[in-house]
Amino acid sequence: MNARMFLIPALILFLFLPCLSTGAESSSDTLYVKKVENLPEDFIFGMDISSVLAEEKSGVKYYDFDGKEIDLFSLLAENGINYIRVRVWNDPYDNEGRGFGGGNCDILNAVEIGKRATACGMKLLVDFHYSDFWADPGKQMVPRAWAKLDIDEKEEELYKYTLDCMKQLKDAGVDVGMVQLGNETNGALCGEKIWRDIAHLMDAGSRAVKEVYPEALIALHFANPEKPDSYRTYASKMAYYEQYGLIQYDVFATSYYPYWHGTLDNLSEILTEIAETYGKKIMVMETSYAFTAEDTDFSANTIGDGGGIVTDYPFTVQGQANCIRNITDTIVNRTPSGIGICYWEGAWITVGTNSWEENHELWEQYGSGWASSYASVYDPKDAGKYYGGSAVDNQAFFDAKGNALESLKVFSLMRTGNEIEPVPDALEEPDLICDLNMPLVLPETVNAVMTDDSRQAVPVTWNLSEEEDQAMHASGPAQYVITGEAGGMEAKCFVSMVEYNYLQDYSFEEDSGAWVITDLKKADELYIEDKKTDSLTGSKHMHFWSAAQDSVEFTLEQTVSDLPEGKFRFALSVMGGDCGATDIYAYAKVDGTEVSRSEQIPITGWNSWNQGIIPEFDHPAGTEVTVGIYVKCQGTGNGAWGKIDDAMLNSLR
After folding, report:
1. Could you tell me what percentage of the chain is helix, strand and coil, using 3-state DSSP and rounding each to the nearest 5?
2. CA atoms within 13 A on the CB side of 555
3. Residues of the chain with pLDDT under 50
4. To which H or E segment does residue 120 belong?
5. Please, are residues 508 and 528 in contact by the beta-carbon 8 Å criterion?
6. How far is CA 627 from CA 413, 582, 601, in A?
């Protein structure tokens, strides 16, 4: 055996060493995971780690659950990830070779990631953006090299480019399992916005992929499932071109971020409809959830400002796991032909925790931030202005130091379940509106979000002194955060002190039916009108008009049955014209009997609002209050008209 013959197997062994599994079955003493029933053995648990090479070049290291440094790919494989997704940009560099950032994700980056994924037994999911930088629903820019091409020329170049990329992957021995043609292509791709042209480009990409990887699945990727009519359009457009032999694809893929993309019920409904109508496999191509509201890299996050509960999950490690588990269950058990989910950039953490300046140098040099300043040559309006670090470091499966979070185990634990004793994980944060003239009553309990995603009321103690309470009432309308303690955790209650209006639909914007109109003389027009220029607040108001004299007489009133005992003030505003002699006043009734009325409210012309006020009336306990306005206009012969808006029923101390 010569030296060269000895080195080859040694090199192969070295490549596989980082991926040798410990063989230990996943378990957790702290993470609750309900088993996903009917989970197929070949279900795709993907992880997009497109930025990993730039992260590693910037000095980022990853550690397992025991704090031992470990190869990221090996750790992901051990915890149930079987696909690695990587985005591919045509040319994410300026003329001097400086990277645009976001991982500088060209085909060479994809090949290296693909080799490491394959070495760990994972397949590669190739995400062609067909752009030099980020492509998403709001931005589908043509690569600079293709900017002057007509559609036929662009189709040919896209085919040759895709073919070359796939050959590079094949030559490197990468196991490609799926290729997506475009990223979140909501009616645009590679600078094109006509569906026929989009279909031709996708078809060119598909043909190139199949030449090199005939068994690879072809996926089309869209976003915004909360708009089901748009998804119906995307699917029907693709089906139309399929019947003419264009863009034969396998997987209808969607982004689903719980912050923006609606409910799981809606997701299931629209994906089920598409699967059953068009016979396509279904996949969630991108998703993620925050384990904390904290930002660690001095570059703002897309999610986290304000903290608190978002959708159904708290920003905790357990909340992150529960979110992913429930999305998986939806795709497996509530969506026909669901084949997988893919978590987006689960390892894109901060490159340092000392300062923005230190991080910025690394982002610029290695492309480990979402964008570098060099991207301005391609995307001056966005990346060129707002370049910076990771916007999702709080949505990774690693903390700021690279330590694996317990939530990473969710992918393997969904297969077996880990239903340990539930404990409180976070507290819901109630929102209260308090009338400045009424006592502030804070809740005696708050809901604890349990690790099994249930809710359990726990007693709470609030940190609010009598002096602080009085100051809140005396300071006028304002917002406050009251802190306390419940279940061993800090509790928060958000309080808005307002001059509370006890009326529904006070400015007629909702047309809710809360107001009762009684026409006493059959006016020509008596309805809620949508006309902003004639409104005091918003765009709607109560409108009246009648051509004949003595034909305007009506009441407009609302009954409030749950008003607390006390003294109250009622007011509303009126404007109009051509009314002649009038009899217009606000009134208040208690149990059907009038107890007070305002002085006469004059009508003085267009946009000249006059207020009718009942400064004070009593509301005894157990009684029903009705407030309203009586309007009678003689008219001048040209038609009496008017508008009513902004009715206020406030308490008095």
Report:
1. 25, 30, 45
2. 12
3. 1-17, 22-23, 307-309
4. none
5. yes
6. 60, 20, 15
DSSP of 242-308: HTTT----SEEEEE--TTTS--HHHHHHHHHHHHHHH--EEEEEEE---S-S---SSS--SS-TT-S
Locate 279 and state its tokens: 């016979």
Kindly report the number of other CB atoms within 10 A of residue 475's CB atom.
11
Helix axes 228-242, 195-212, angle to 10 degrees: 60
Sign of the Cα torsion 350, 354, 356, 357 reads negative
Residue with tokens 């709080």: 394
Q: What is the pLDDT at residue 305?
A: 58
Cβ atoms of 169 and 108 closer than 8 Å: no
- Give the separation between CA 313 and CA 288, rounded to whole angstroms: 12
Single pTM value for the model: 0.79
Q: Which tokens in the block code for residue 109? A: 């980056």
pLDDT of residue 2: 34
The Cα angle at residue 316 between residues 253 and 452, in degrees rounded to 5: 85
Pairing between β-strand 461-462 and β-strand 455-459 as defined by DSSP bridges: unpaired
pLDDT on residue 10: 35
**Residues 426, 489: Cα–Cα separation, whole Å:** 8
Q: Which residues are catalytic?
A: 184, 286
Q: Which helix (H) or strand (E) holds 331?
A: helix 317-333
